[in-house]
Amino acid sequence: MTGSPGAAASDVDPRVLRRYAGYVDAAAVVLVCLGSGVLAGWAWRVDRLTTVLPGTASMRPNTAVCLVASGLALWLGRAGTPPRWRRLGGCAAASVVLITTGTLAEYAAGVSPGLDTILFGADPGLAIQRYPGRMAPHTALGLLFLGAAQLVLPGPPAVSGARVVTGQVLSLAAGAVGVLGLYGHAYAVPEFQNPLGLTAMAVHTALAITVGAIGSFVARPAVGLARILTTRARTAMMTRRILLAALFVPPGLGWLRVLGENRDLYGTELGVALLVAVNVTIFVVLLFATGAAAVRLEARHRRAEAELAWHSAAAAMAEAAPDAMVGVDNDGTVVLVNAEAERLFGYPRAEMLGRPVEVFVPPGVHPADPHRATGGVLCVRRKDGAEIPTQISVSALHTGGRRLVVAAVHDVSDRIRYETQLREKNAQLQQANQAKDAFLAAMSHELRTPLNSIIGFTGTLLMGLPGPVNDEQAHQLRLVETAGQHLLCLIDDILQLAKIEAGQLDLHPEPTDCGATVQEVTEYMRPLADHKGLPLITDLPEQTCTATVDRRALSQILINLIGNAIKFTDAGHVHVGLTRDQPRTPWTVTISDTGPGIDPAEHTRIFEAFHRAATARHHDGTGLGLFICHTLAERMACPIRLTSSPGEGTTVTLVLPE
Predict the structure, then answer these.
(1) pTM of the predicted structure, to 2 decimals
(2) Do both 175 and 268 map to the same domain?
(3) Do 71 and 185 reside in the same domain of the chain?
């Protein structure tokens, strides 16, 4: 019953824990608010705050201080509170103990050193009392129990069960004092209100002590005496029911009986008879309900027996498991093996049972420790001394009061061999891929130099600098120039692809006037549109559009997108826009055309390398342009979206970062 919280927390009902945690919070708030309200009543002479019921005792200022300190100790002593604040709560509980101990010492010694009148000592409401400002002796006793309980309870979550039980016993003692005070006021019994004839306990003082005592009792609900009320067992539920009835039903019925007799509704004999009859009726109903719960508990017991039989069947299944099964107890002794374990380790079953598990595993590895044994590849020793790589899955079982660790040992020799071969193949492929990238980069550079010369000399011939050429010669030269430009674009795409795959793509984002960049690229591409007779429409804002991008990469993206729009549009127009929806939303570049469009089924692959849409296969190209655009946009955090349908053209949207 007083086990550690770690052991107790496994079988407690989390709903009950949450309910009790909420009550602890509420009790702390009630104590602080009630004590603060009484202090305010003394400060501003509000009798309704110091004396709840007219004609009864008032709560003393030092009592109110103790309630505030006790509420703070209860709030700061909750589980999960940082140690620094918990220590502050312990100091608040210690102050309650000091104040109440001093008060009891004053009563015992018959002295009055003036400690009771430090607060509001000149108040006439205190001066008329026999002991001005001094709390009642049983009030001091109840608060002493409460403060001592809170002083014992605060601590780390692993606080010992003995400390918790001590604190809970002190809480019960404080609750008994508070309940007696409440009974004294409820039944008008002076002996309970003022047992020594010195100073009476106020009704809200009795209520506060009772509330604080219950809050302290359930502050550690998973440990000690309170655990009886919080476990998942059916008996805990029955205990909660009967305890609530025992706490509230007889006192409530007794109060109703006294109230009825005082108002002459019935005589003493009838009152006693009614009290007994109602009590018997209620508790008979509770007993029948408890009996029904016991029947359900018996049904659960039978289900547990059936589950035990199932576990026996599961043990038989483990014997036929394809993996080696080894059971180890807390001492590290092998207590269970199956036939596959005999085959894997090379030992007869009789030789394995009773031996230390270290015989079968390398030093530093203990299968009884699930955290160290599960997941990785471990080598086990066979009888002949050979080590076999295995993967061990470990689970802990608690049966018959014992802890048993069962390890499923799977031979992974073949898997490791295949993984080694796969790693070697991957390394070879990576080397081949690096060689391919290096070759493409070198060849691209080697091809660009003579190709630029060919294009340059072709342009020189077309300008007639070496001499005039006729129309047929000019036509052939233009074909050479067009083919050279196409080949140069292809080489540039291959070079860019090699840089991307080699991780050598170097971007430098900086604030850029994107409107000017879009305008420059559009004007650069306009001759190509004019050559096909396509209107190239631009829609640019008047204000400056600034975004953090790499200007060169943005230009390359726009050239590829606008070039594709012009290439695949035979009639209609190409539109380039730079807009944004709201003043503080990102700018977007939109390129739309009236071309053949793209089937939605191809949208997910259109930005892959070397993939070309079905409608584009009769045009020249490699399928690298959109892949390069998408990669550059992704590196600059510029989402790129495609909207297209066959026969309705294509719209590509590039969202620029702010």
Answers:
(1) 0.46
(2) no
(3) yes
